[in-house]
Amino acid sequence: MMFPLVRDLAAPIALLRVPVTVTCRVLGFSTQAFYKWLANPVSQRDWDDAHLINAALDLHSDDPEFGYRLLTDELRLEGFMASENRVWRLCSQQRIFSVHSRKRGLSRKPGPPVHDDLLERDFSAETFNSKWLTDITEHPTGEGKLYLCAVKDCASNRIVGYSLDARMTSELAVTALQNAIALRSPAGTIVHSDRGGQFRSRKYVLALQQAGLAGSMGRVAACADNAAMESFFSLLQKNVLNRKRWDTREQLRLAIVTWIERTYHRRRRQEGLGRLTPVEFETIHHSTTQTATAA
Q1: Which residue in 115, 131, 114 sits closest to 123, CA to CA?
Q2: Contact 164, 190 (CB under 8 A)
Q3: Hey, which residues does 131 pair with through a beta bridge?
Q4: What is the rounded distance in angstroms from the CA atom of residue 124 to the CA atom of residue 117?
Q5: Does residue 160 have a pLDDT over 80?
Q6: Which of 109, 236, 279, 292 is the most buried (most CB within 10 A)?
Q7: Number of continuous H segments (helices) and E segments (strands) in the chain
């Protein structure tokens, strides 16, 4: 837009003042158009776009996986009425892209960790709720993907919290964490994850801080930094996810919950727990602790 140039050249403090009519004639537009702009330099459309961009940036910082379609949905929930085309245009201008997208000429790397690695691949734990591991896995169904975020206690290998959703957002990770907190009432627990955007989001970091938990993050592309959690997902993959084609998300959701609560927790014995199930291991440990305290 050339209107600011016309204004600056005609300003009293300009080194070489040029009348508005002359500049408009040279640049090829009318003085009426200039004075109309001068009366309202920022249009209502530009003003609305600025607020829309600001809201989109806030949402994207919480969930870097969001592309313009998911951002459009979230913006509408925030009270912004905007079409997908408009959000796409603004996101393209501001280079707001999903971390899953692959754009030519753009090099995307996982974001920096928001926590230090407090475990350093030491997944052993003498007490319950001292170390938790968390991660997200996905599986396709006939309706689309279903995402699972799980939280595992290193002492008993029990899944102390989990959540399932059709979208992989920070809310998925926060819900799993809150479920674990509600079940276990931890204090000072180390919660270890990878550098996924959900675990680096402001919502998740705030949830950790409010519960008095310590966040921990592994390195980029280092599966061994969260190997104990990966082993659980491997079992889930072989015993549930890959056993058949799933037509609906609800079918898969029910199968996952049933396997975790009935089979993994109560029927699957583990060498590391002395051939006990996670529930048996915790029950015996609590009974022994109560007996020792009574004595």
Answers
A1: 131
A2: no
A3: 190
A4: 15
A5: yes
A6: 236
A7: 12, 5
Angstrom distance (rounded) from CA 19 to CA 7: 9
- For residue 150, what are the contacts with CB-CB under 8 A and spacing of at least 6? 134, 135, 137, 159, 161, 162, 176, 229, 232, 233, 260
Q: What is the pLDDT of residues 75-97, one digit of tens each?
A: 888 888 888 888 888 888 888 87
Yes or no: say if 141 and 251 are a contact pair by the CB < 8 Å rule. Answer: yes
Closest by alpha carbon to 197, among 225, 171, 163?
171
The answer on pLDDT for 156 being more than 90 is yes
Closest CA to 161 of 124, 136, 127: 136
Residue-wise pLDDT tens digits, 270-293: 888 999 999 999 999 887 766 666
Compute the C-alpha angle 221/191/257, nearest 5°: 90
Amino acid identity of residue 287, one-letter, is S
Q: Read off the DSSP letter of residue 201.
A: S
CA separation for the pair 196, 198 (Å, rounded): 5
Pair of tokens at residue 97? 């892209």
Q: Sign of torsion, CA 44 49 50 51? A: positive
Residue 162 CA to residue 260 CA, distance in Å, equals: 10
User: What percentage of the chain's residues is helix, strand, coil (to nearest 5)?
Assistant: 50, 15, 35
Q: Please, what is the angle between helix 3-10 and helix 31-39, to 10°?
A: 90
Give the per-residue pLDDT at 110: 56
